[in-house]
Amino acid sequence: MNSHYSVVVIGGGQAGLSMSWYLRQRGVDHVVLERERVGHEWRTRRWDSFCLVTPNWQCRLPGYAYSGDDPDGFMLGAEVVGFLEKYAASFDPPLLEGVEVTRLRRTPQGVFELSTSAGFVSADQVVVATGPYHVPAVPRIAERLPSDLVQIHSAQYRNAAELPEGAVLVVGTGQSGCQIAEDLHLAGREVHLAVGSAPRAARRYRGRDTLAWLDEMGHYARGIDEFGDADEVRVRANHYMTGRDGGRDIDLRAFARDGMKLYGHLRGVSLSTLEFADDLGPSLDNADAVAEGIKDAIDRYIDSAGIAAPAEARYVPVWRPDSSASVLDLAASGVSAVVWATGFHRDHRWIEVPIFDGRGYPTHERGVTGCPGLYFLGLPWQWTWGSGRFAGVAQDAAYLCSRIFDARRQRFTDEVSWLAGTPTETYPQVEWWVAA
Q1: For the chain, domain boundaries
Q2: How many CA atoms lie within 13 A of 372 on its CB side?
Q3: What is the pTM of this model?
Q4: What is the CATH code of the structural domain delimited by 4-134+346-419?
Q5: How far apart are CA 251 and CA 73, in angstroms?
Q6: Which of 69, 118, 211, 268 minimizes the number of CB atoms within 10 Å of its CB?
Q7: Which keywords are on file for this protein (predicted)?
């Protein structure tokens, strides 16, 4: 590792690699520092049956895209790792794996200083491409559960066989919670599921994948500035569906009809008894309403564009809960394990630059922070729906590369202004800079 670079990119996932591709195209000297190895998150924080929710045709990075024979399919976790490894090999980025950045600060002179596990390095500009999913979030209420109960976070779940025999409680119904609950259910385990407020979407509608319709409708090209509640948009839960077995809906009502026990959100613990809020019905109704609202938008688009698409009957609920509040006696129900599908916390404590808001979120506009030379890439809804995904990270990386290059050009311009009155035999590079 050199002692100084024009740009240091922190993180070697799809965001960091995309940034490196554009910097290399512009001839900007840089290095990508990856704490583990390419594809680490996909290797270690996904369960065995995991697959993408977005179709393969949306897997496109700068200078590289999915080229297999199943564009409408959904890559398994191992295939995603291979996709990233092949992408890195396609342009040989200046990537250093196994290097962790432990401190980032900016000197009064405007130089960034980074402490890393491989030594000290400085940079004119820095791109933080470490994503938002740093520390598994487990609520403090977990501390009150019986000590003999096995508790894991969704990032630690691999398969049903690794959990002790008995029933399993899954808390949370974002994409991970719903898919893990399904995985346990299909493995023949008795599952109890605490349902949250995440919305759902149909996998397919009127002859096409719902995401294909939304892409054609321009939904994924909408910038965050088109929404009146940008801060809320960025923290909304993703719609749940699955790409498993070729892709299908996830219908929690159907799970309940087939034997899974559903509850409202977890509200309290008393010894081995859990208390759930009486909001299961409204949560299921709201999830259905969102899914039907997406279908409404697709119908309007089909009608306005005069597209010949097959008609499709609308969803009819297959199960409804009663309205009484629920409790679960863990011991009496034979629950031996809990899977907390409750998301992640950001951890930017190593960044010693005052750019964060009261919630610890980096304040930025399209990834450009208020600190000159410091950028973020790969955040959910950084600019569009696809910003934190394979679908849209390239657009964000291209934008930031332009801003980085503009900053470099401005710096040279400033230096030329300072040197303008100096004889060129003393500083012969002045003529080159002026020509450039």
Answers
A1: 4-134+346-419, 137-341
A2: 12
A3: 0.92
A4: 3.50.50.60
A5: 20
A6: 69
A7: Oxidoreductase
Q: What is the CATH number of domain 137-341?
A: 3.50.50.60
For residues 210 and 55, the answer to whether their CB atoms sit within 8 Å is no
Cα–Cα distance measured from residue 143 to residue 154, given in angstroms and rounded to the nearest whole number: 17
Task: Render each residue's pLDDT in the chain as its tens digit; 436 residues.
Answer: 899 999 999 999 999 999 999 999 999 999 999 999 999 999 999 999 999 999 999 999 999 999 999 999 999 999 999 999 999 999 999 999 999 999 999 999 999 999 999 999 999 999 999 998 999 999 999 999 999 999 999 999 999 999 999 999 999 999 999 999 999 999 999 999 999 999 999 999 999 999 999 999 999 999 999 988 888 888 888 999 999 999 999 999 999 999 999 999 999 999 899 999 999 999 999 999 999 999 999 999 999 999 999 999 999 999 999 876 699 999 999 999 999 999 999 999 999 999 999 989 999 999 999 999 999 999 999 999 999 899 999 999 999 999 999 998 877 666 555 555 554 444 444 343 333 3
SS3 (DSSP) at 123: strand
Which tokens hold the place of 161? Answer: 């066989």
Measure Cα distances from 192 to 120, 171, 206, 328 in Å. 50, 8, 33, 9
Coil vs helix vs strand at 65:
strand
What backbone torsions phi and psi does residue 209 show, to the nearest 5 degrees?
-60, 135
220-239 burial code (b ≥16 CB/10 A, e <16): beeebeeeeeeeeebeeebb
Torsion angle of C-alpha atoms 233, 231, 347, 150, degrees rounded to 10: -50
Could you give the CA distance from residue 176 to residue 242 in angstroms, rounded to a whole number?
10
| Nearest residue to 101 (alpha-carbon basis) of 417, 348, 330 | 348
Structure tokens at 23: 């910097």
Map residue 43 onto helix, strand or coil. helix
At 386, is the secondary structure helix, strand, or coil? coil
- DSSP category for residue 154: G
Nearest residue to 128 (alpha-carbon basis) of 16, 2, 13, 14: 16
Q: How far is CA 243 from the centre of its chain?
A: 16
- Provide the 3-class DSSP secondary structure of residue 115: strand
